[in-house]
Amino acid sequence: MDQIFNKLKGDKWIWIIVIVLSGWSLLAVYSSVGTLAYKEGKGTELYLFKHFSIIAIGIGLMYLSHKLDYRYYAGISKLLMIITIPLLLFTLIGGNKVNDASRWVTIPVINQTFQTSDLAKLALITFLARMLSRKQEDIKDVKKSFVPIMGAVCAVFVLIAWANLSTALMLFGTSILLLLIGRISFKQIAIVSLGVGLLGLIVIAVGPRRTTYFSRIEGFFRSEEVASGTVSFQEDKNYQANLAKMTIASGEFFGKGAGNSVGRNLLPHPYSDFIFAIIVEEYGTLGGAILLALYMALMYRCIRIVTLSPRAFGAFLAAGLGFSLTIQALANMAVAVGLGPVTGVPLPLVSMGGTSILFTSVALGIILSVSRNIEELKDKEELYEAPRTKKVVVGTI
Predict the structure, then answer these.
(1) Which sign does the torsion angle of CA 337, 356, 12, 76 carry?
(2) β-pairing, 112-115 with 96-98?
(3) Nearest to 25 by CA among 294, 206, 220
(4) Which residue windows are transmembrane per the record (predicted)?
């Protein structure tokens, strides 16, 4: 084990958290894909092998990302933004449409779907980190700093929100946190927030998924009527969240045990959107608390990297990517326990998925690259100071 960790640079606790979450993901996904396997006439082992392959590729990408000096990502972020905007436009116009939402494009040759918003999240956060670190001297200048920074944020928000409002809102929230850390004025942030809020209302009112949005919001606020008996469970528009709450409640404190979930046969997408409910049912409230603690520990380690980073770009990278992963995890858990309307956001590193796991792994690799750079600088400082602090023993004749 020591030999393995000697080859892995960066924060060792982040590596441990990723390994634990990945192992837990294999157990949870294997337990929850039974209904999907039955519908498609395939064995559950096939899904387990596929999920394991994606996790293995993700860890490989994480390793490669952490080996690359994080300062190179400043240049890569420009290229990613140049690719992302046209790709999001193409997704809206010619992407694969599921439930009135065009979120995926099919990659030629390998014939695999690809969710472009995952790339957009990584591209925008790295681009913001680059812009904020380079514009600190003129950060209050509207023309030089505010317009190009907020132009990128608003453009990506609108293009994602049209088909995936929940992801767009979480990305905007992460961007606002980064802007606050980057010393953008509160007045400017308030103006943009009002503008983005108006854009969000327009998307909800006239967008292609307006019926779904209104249904989920109405169902969320009418959930008490189901409990009181004035609305039947079949008529409840928030039935997915109610099933999730019932599944969670049945797990009690210690859970039913791995593989003993009943809710997996009732919940839609128990292997992705509602995998947290399955985990709590099988591992209990205790298991759910441990999972939450792992994400909080991940955020803590990211904040620690932010405080130790000697360069602004590295600090902004670790903060933005760390906030993005944690906010997504909290949003998924909040939906499962009934604290928010259904969003369809996966649980990072745990839910079954392709592009979500891969881009999450790359994001963690970039954070580890910042941490690796901090360690290398510390080692150089110790090496430089060692000769000056070394004691000299003078012998006697």
Answers:
(1) negative
(2) unpaired
(3) 294
(4) 12-34, 46-64, 76-94, 145-162, 189-207, 274-300, 312-337, 349-370
CA 70 to chain centre: 19
- The helix (H) or strand (E) run that includes residue 96 is strand 96-98
Query: What is the sign, positive or negative, of the torsion defined by CA atoms of 135, 137, 141, 144?
Result: negative
**Tokens for 64?**
């490669």
| Residue-level pLDDT at 198 | 87
pLDDT of 285: 95
CA–CA separation, 364 and 18 (whole Å): 9
| Residue pLDDT, tens place only, 246-263 | 899 999 999 999 989 998
For 114-156, the three-class secondary structure string (H helix, E strand, C coil) is: EEHHHHHHHHHHHHHHHHHHHCHHHCCCHHHHHHHHHHHHHHH
Give the pTM.
0.88
Residues of the chain with pLDDT under 50: 227-228, 233-234, 388-397
CB atoms within 10 A of CB 69: 11
Residue with tokens 């969710």: 115
What type of residue sits at position 208? P
Helix (H, G, I), strand (E, B) or coil at 363: helix
Q: Residue 390: what pLDDT?
A: 46
Structure tokens of 152?
């990128």
The answer to whether 86 and 139 have CB atoms below 8 angstroms apart is: no
**pLDDT at site 4:** 63
